[in-house]
Amino acid sequence: MNSVALKISRGHLIRFASPWTNFCTKRSNSTSVNSRQAFLEPLECQAGITCLSLNRPQSKNAISTTLLKELIQSLDTAQFDKSIRVLILRSTTTGSFCAGADLIERRSMSQVQVARFLSDLRVALGKLETLPMPTIAAIDGPALGGGLELGLACDLRVAGRNVTKIGLPETALGIIPGAGGTQRATRLVGPARAKDLIFTARMLSATEALEWGLVDYISSPESDAFERAVQLASQISNNAPLALRAAKQAISRSEDLALEPGLDFERASYEALLSTQDRMEALVAFKEKRRPVFKGE
C-alpha cells in the first residue's frame, strides 16, 4: 500500500494510510462543538483514540479563561472515560498548537483574577499529567510558555518538522514559567538545559527540541505532527488498556519512590493484571497465533 496523507481542514474527511496504519477523522461543523475553545473529539476509524482539541484559531490557541475552563471540563470527562485508550492534545488549526497565555486578556485582569487563573492552570496541567491513559501532544505550531507547559504535562510530544518556535520565553517578559515549566522541563532535560532554555528565553526548532529531549518525535517532511501522533497512538492503542494504565502509573510513581518501594509498587501493579480478561485473551491469542482483541477488562 502506498502512503497517502491529506492535510486536515475543518469539516472534511481526512484519511492517512501507510503499510502499517490507517486512520480517518472528521472535524465537526456543529456549532455546539466548534463554538467551544476546548473539546474532546473521538477519532473516527481508530477506536480508542480521542483528541483533546484546542479551538481558538484567531489567537493561535492562546489560553483564555474560557479555554482554560473548557479544558478542565474536558479533562474531567476524559479522566473517567474508559473507552479512551490514548489521548492526543492538538489544535483544530493546521500549523498551530498553543501560544501560551492570552496576554491581551491578561492586561484587563485584576491581580485576584490573575492569581485565580494561575491556580486553575496549575490544576488543569495536573489533571492532564495524571490522566490514567497515555497522552500525546501534537505540536504543529508555536508552543510558547504555557503552550509548551501543556505539552510537558503529556507523556509524549510530537513536533511538526517545520515548527520553529518551541520555548519558555517568560524571563524576556519579566516573569518565570508559572505553570510547571521550571519543574517539568528540568525533570525532562536536566537542570543545565532547563536553565539554558529559561535563562536565555531562546526559541528551539523542532529538530533542536528533539536533540534537547523536549520532544520525542518529529514528523516526516510530507506529514505533520498530528499525523505522526496518530501513528504513535495507533501503535500504543493496540496494546491492553489496563496494562497501559498500570504501566503509566508505575513509571510515574518512580520519580517519587526509592528503588525498593518502587519495585514493590511495580510488583503489585503486575499482579493485579494477572487475573484480567485481557491477560487471558493475550495467552489464548498467543497459542492460536493471532492478534489479541483487548477490551480493557
TrEMBL record:
Keywords: Lyase. SUPFAM superfamilies: ClpP/crotonase. PROSITE patterns: ENOYL_COA_HYDRATASE. The keyword Mitochondrion does not apply. InterPro entries: ClpP/crotonase-like_dom_sf (IPR029045), Enoyl-CoA_hyd/isom_CS (IPR018376), Enoyl-CoA_hydra/iso (IPR001753), Enoyl-CoA_hydra_C (IPR014748). Belongs to the enoyl-CoA hydratase/isomerase family. This is Enoyl-CoA hydratase.
